[in-house]
């Protein structure tokens, strides 16, 4: 049997235990919150920063290029002209072969006029572009001036033609009788007449003229004793023709004129 004072103490102990349990729960919650807060700070410190967004100045992107669109005339910046020679040392009588290439480096197909008189190789004595350079030959001089040659070049398309130079001079109109070339340094370049500013790199060549071979001697005798002269041979022949026909050393003419013994006898 419990006394009245003990019964009064029990509710107080129960309230104390509940308070203690509550404090313990609050402590655990505080620890968890502290751990979460510290972890959040650590994540914030170690998380990589995002890159700043790229701001474009263009309001609208460019329209895509249609390589099959209707062809327009080629622009100077779209064309690349090349020139190559099969020899860089030129001698008389040996033609030089040039290879001319025309490439479309633009993004779309284009049209270009490239006849022989328009896409021409020109040779100069001296350096191309120098005031002292002399124009000596061009593939346009003797080409058909009425020729038409329209090319449709797609992106990266290349047109190739061959041109031959026979180491001679030429003038516009292809007039004959031009003077011969002289030895020295020559340069060649391709230009496109219809589009200004389109030209190839310069090809440099050396023109050499062989030394003349030795001529035969004035006497005309290829070999033998050069001391023998034509006059000596002629005198020997004259002496031989003047010798008498007789073998006894007497003059045959005097012997014929000598009277015989019977000439004094009368018949």
From TrEMBL:
Q: Where is this region: Disordered?
A: 1-21, 207-267
Locations of Basic and acidic residues compositional bias?
A: 7-20
Q: Where is the composition biased (Acidic residues)?
A: 234-248
Q: Which UniProt keywords apply?
A: Membrane, Transmembrane, Transmembrane helix
Question: Per its UniProt entry, which superkingdom is the organism in?
Answer: Bacteria
- Transmembrane stretches in the record are 26-47
| Keyword Repressor in record | no
Where are the compositionally biased (Low complexity) regions? 210-233
User: What is the protein name for this chain?
Assistant: DUF4232 domain-containing protein
Q: What is the protein's species of origin?
A: Promicromonospora umidemergens
Q: What phylogenetic lineage does the species belong to?
A: Bacteria, Bacillati, Actinomycetota, Actinomycetes, Micrococcales
């Amino acid at each position: 049997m419990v006394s009245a004072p003990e019964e009064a103490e029990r509710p107080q102990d129960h309230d104390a235990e509940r308070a203690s349990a509550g404090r313990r729960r609050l402590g655990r919650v505080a620890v968890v919150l502290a751990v979460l807060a510290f972890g959040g700070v650590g994540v914030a410190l170690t998380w990589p920063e995002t890159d700043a967004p790229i701001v474009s100045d263009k309001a609208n992107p460019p329209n895509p290029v249609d390589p099959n669109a209707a062809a327009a005339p080629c622009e100077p910046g779209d064309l690349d002209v090349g020139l190559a020679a099969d020899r860089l040392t030129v001698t008389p009588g040996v033609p030089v072969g040039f290879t001319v290439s025309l490439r479309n480096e633009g993004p779309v197909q284009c049209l270009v006029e490239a006849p022989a008189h328009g896409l021409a190789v020109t040779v100069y004595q001296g350096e191309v572009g120098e005031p002292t350079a002399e124009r000596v030959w061009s593939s346009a001089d003797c080409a058909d001036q009425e020729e038409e040659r329209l090319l449709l070049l797609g992106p990266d398309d290349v047109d190739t033609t061959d041109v031959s130079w026979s180491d001679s001079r030429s003038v516009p109109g292809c007039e004959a009788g031009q003077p011969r070339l002289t030895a020295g340094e020559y340069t060649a370049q391709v230009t496109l007449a219809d589009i200004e500013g389109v030209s190839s790199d310069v090809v440099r060549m050396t023109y050499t003229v062989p030394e003349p071979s030795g001529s035969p001697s004035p006497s005309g005798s290829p070999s033998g004793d050069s001391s023998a002269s034509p006059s000596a041979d002629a005198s020997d022949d004259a002496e031989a023709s003047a010798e008498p026909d007789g073998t006894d050393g007497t003059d045959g003419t005097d012997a014929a004129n000598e009277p015989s013994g019977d000439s004094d006898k009368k018949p």
